[in-house]
């Protein structure tokens, strides 16, 4: 038996990186997962790997109609919906002076508005089913700022606040809302084009108690815990998985 037996969970940005790790872990814990992403080939390949307990839906988190579609697909295929992981996001390192307004708005649209749309879309279904759990993926940059990350930091602080407000609003309906705050996790988003590849990561990790990149699979058990009944008294809370980055003095 797993802690997510018979749960149905939507995971956005689920085709690769942390989202894919979540999908694999949730299925191993007994869940059925609906993977939303714009990376169709990767999403379909992951479903082929996971089998009948997984489904893929092309899904743009900034599209209101797409949220209606993925919720409808989840309930049509698996008969119910129990949880959502708002995992989709974008990370861009760029000094404020070099970022245009369109770039700033794009990051907020994906990271923040996408999460808000997701909460709004699933809340009525979760409530009608007797309750459920929403996990919003923020960041350590939802708790501390960093140069070159004004838009990303703004979006992740806002996701943290959105989580708390939604928890207050939805608690009476049995819907819990929490946020997780990963640190330096090795994913395509943090290590691909647009990352800080010109920065010596060894100097950063030398100041971190667990002095290495975290792996996506080290975040997934926390997300599963928050989706499960083991966290039944947790809502409006933030959970950090950062190797100790935030435990020390500011960098």
Automatic annotation (TrEMBL):
SMART domains: PKS_KR. InterPro entries: KR_dom, NAD(P)-bd_dom_sf, Sc_DH/Rdtase_CS, SDR_fam. The keyword Nucleotidyltransferase does not apply. It comes from the Bacteria. Keywords: NAD, Oxidoreductase. The keyword NAD applies. Signal peptide: none annotated. GO terms for molecular function: oxidoreductase activity. Residues 7-188 form the Ketoreductase domain. Belongs to the short-chain dehydrogenases/reductases (SDR) family. PANTHER family: DEHYDROGENASES, SHORT CHAIN, ESTRADIOL 17-BETA-DEHYDROGENASE 8-RELATED. This is SDR family oxidoreductase. The lineage of its organism: Bacteria, Bacillati, Actinomycetota, Actinomycetes, Propionibacteriales.
């Amino acid at each position: 038996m797993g802690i997510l037996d018979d749960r149905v969970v939507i995971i956005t940005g689920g085709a690769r990186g942390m989202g894919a790790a979540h999908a694999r872990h949730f299925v191993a814990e007994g869940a059925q997962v609906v993977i939303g992403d714009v990376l169709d080939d990767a999403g379909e390949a992951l479903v082929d790997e996971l089998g009948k307990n997984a489904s893929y839906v092309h899904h743009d988190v900034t599209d209101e109609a797409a949220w209606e579609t993925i919720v409808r697909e989840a309930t049509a295929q698996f008969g119910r919906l129990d949880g959502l992981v708002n995992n989709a996001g974008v990370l861009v390192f760029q000094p404020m002076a070099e970022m245009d307004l369109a770039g700033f708005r794009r990051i907020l649209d994906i990271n923040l508005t996408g999460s808000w749309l997701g909460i709004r879309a699933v809340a009525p279904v979760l409530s009608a089913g007797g309750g459920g759990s929403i996990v919003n993926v923020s960041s350590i940059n939802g708790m501390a700022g960093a140069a070159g990350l004004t838009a990303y930091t703004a979006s992740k602080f806002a996701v943290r606040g959105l989580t708390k407000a939604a928890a207050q609003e939805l608690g009476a309906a049995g819907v819990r809302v929490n946020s997780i705050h990963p640190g330096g996790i090795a994913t395509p988003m943090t290590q691909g084009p647009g990352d800080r590849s010109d920065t010596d990561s060894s100097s950063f990790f030398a100041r971190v108690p667990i002095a290495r990149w975290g792996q996506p699979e080290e975040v997934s058990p926390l997300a599963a815990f928050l989706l499960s009944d083991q966290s039944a008294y947790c809502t409006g809370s933030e959970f950090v998985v950062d190797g100790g980055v935030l435990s020390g003095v500011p960098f």
